[in-house]
Design goal:
The complex is a heterodimer of chains A (117) and B (116).
Chain A: E1 5-7, E2 10-13, E3 19-24, E4 31-37, E5 43-50, E6 53-57, E7 65-68, E8 75-79, E9 88-95, E10 107-108, E11 112-116
Parallel strand pairs in A: 2-11
Antiparallel strand pairs in A: 1-3, 3-8, 4-5, 4-9, 5-6, 7-8, 9-10, 9-11
Chain B: E1 3-5, E2 10-14, E3 19-21, E4 24-26, E5 32-39, E6 46-52, E7 59-61, E8 64-69, E9 74-79, E10 88-96, E11 105-106, E12 110-115
Parallel strand pairs in B: 2-12
Antiparallel strand pairs in B: 1-4, 3-9, 5-6, 5-10, 7-8, 8-9, 10-11, 10-12
Classes of the chains: A mainly beta (117), B mainly beta (116).
């Protein structure tokens, strides 16, 4: 069964450094998402991406964040200058289409745990 | 704006007990979708079920069952004869059918611990 993959599984970085989290969505999917989960808290939406542009973003997704789909398969989340409070699990998700179809469900990758020191 | 409330922060049961996890949602959209995800200790998010707002049929899948009631804006999840492997955090989530581009709004999660 196709699945969303994410690399690395764990990233440790120093405050102020740039990090890039990578995701490979399911191949025929059209909508892509990043979510964040601070340890012990709920999963929070960061950004959605469709047709090579951001379709929606949350208040968390400020100028320090950016997303890109550089080559038609990878979907990346970049944090330009990490802060301590960026430490969290970051989940990528994808969906083939939106609507009433039975496959209209977001499937999540295994997550990347980001630790900012 | 949409909101999902899981009032039970933690539930602890003994194996073979039945347990119900509550989920209450708020949305002004008439078309929406409700989901349950399981997050085991390994951390991944595992999809369990999706329900559309126009389909109020309850669903049973093995030991799992879901009770969707639009009148009370609830989408509760029951595990029958719980097992230790059911121990996880369970999240209820909502997606509206408008221009949300598929964004999921999650509840706070319920930590379920099943003791042997």
């Amino acid at each position: 069964e196709p699945e969303v993959t994410q690399t690395p599984s764990h990233q440790v970085t120093q405050m102020g450094q740039e990090v890039i989290l990578r995701c490979v969505p399911i191949s025929n999917h059209l909508y892509f998402y990043w979510y964040r989960q601070i340890l012990g808290q709920k999963v929070e939406f960061l950004v959605s991406f469709y047709n090579n542009e951001i379709s929606e973003k949350s208040e968390i997704f400020d100028d320090q964040f950016s997303v890109e789909r550089p080559d038609g398969s990878n979907f990346t989340l970049k944090i330009r200058s990490t802060k301590l409070e960026d430490s969290a699990m970051y989940f990528c998700a994808s969906i083939d289409r939106l609507g009433l179809a039975s496959t209209d469900t977001q499937y999540f990758g295994p997550g990347t745990r980001l630790t900012v020191l | 704006a949409q909101k999902v409330t899981q009032a039970q922060t933690e539930i602890s049961v003994v194996e073979k007990e039945d347990v119900t996890l509550d989920c209450v949602y708020e949305t002004r959209d008439t078309t929406y979708y409700l989901f349950w995800y399981k997050q085991p200790p390994s951390g991944e998010l595992v999809f369990l079920i999706r329900r559309n707002s126009f389909d109020e049929q309850n669903e049973i899948s093995g030991r799992y069952s879901w009770n969707f009631q639009k009148s009370t804006s609830s989408f509760n999840f029951t595990i029958t004869a719980s097992q230790v492997v059911d121990s996880a955090v369970y999240f209820c989530a909502l997606r509206t059918g408008g221009t949300s581009y598929g964004k999921l709004t999650f509840g706070q999660g319920t930590i379920l611990t099943v003791h042997p």
